[in-house]
Amino acid sequence: MKGTQSSRLDVKSCRGASSDSDHFLVKERYRCKIAYSKYEPNRTTRRLHVGALREASNVRRFQQQLEEEFGKLETERVMGEKSHVQEDWKKLKEVIMEAAEQTIGYQPKSDRRGWFDNECRKALEEKNATYKKWINRPTRAKRMECGRLRKVAYKMCRKRKRTQMDNRMRDIEENIKDKQIRNAYKEGGSLRASFQPHTDLCRGTNYEILLKQEETKTRWKTYFQDLLNPPPPPPSNDRSSYLYKPCRH
Prior knowledge:
By secondary structure, the protein is mainly alpha-helical. The chain is built from six helices and four strands. The strands form two sheets. Strands 1-2 form a two-stranded antiparallel sheet. Helix 4 packs antiparallel against helix 5. The chain is flat, with a radius of gyration of 29 Å.
């Protein structure tokens, strides 16, 4: 790839190494451009299963639950004292979320690799076990058995992938027929999308990458202080000095 040529330092092929393939193992020295991803256990937010509202029964249940909860909220408001707008909005949000949880629930977690089932795992385990036996004591029979199991595992995984792809394409076609254009575009985008790690890095005043969280906070604080409190403009038309915005990487 042309975009990563400047990061490659050395490339070498290792013909003696076995990688369970007809290709040679390639060894490469690479100058890595780190994309820092901060791990947070509760980072992802659960989304409500809005698609369940397409069914009329779920819509009626949701409306009835909202009417009951709104009636209770109105009774508490009449009996109690006057409250602040923010408190009323917070209670209203809690009522709507509670009614949604009880009626439609949350979206099920999607399996990004649903094609990999127990049969694929079992075929790969058998292939790997046979390969280890062949490496420990190579014989012609073991080599042929390893090649056979390799073909079986490859065909099985390829078949599962194609089946899943056909099912997803069929879902897109059904969404288009049902005029669910948003779901169709969303599913199509997920097929084309690649992995994009979340980064929390920024650059300092000297263009260096800041890794620590405290340094990043201090840099953003300094940046906004300089941005909101600029010095008086020079009398001349000299525009060579601009503030540098710390970009995320």
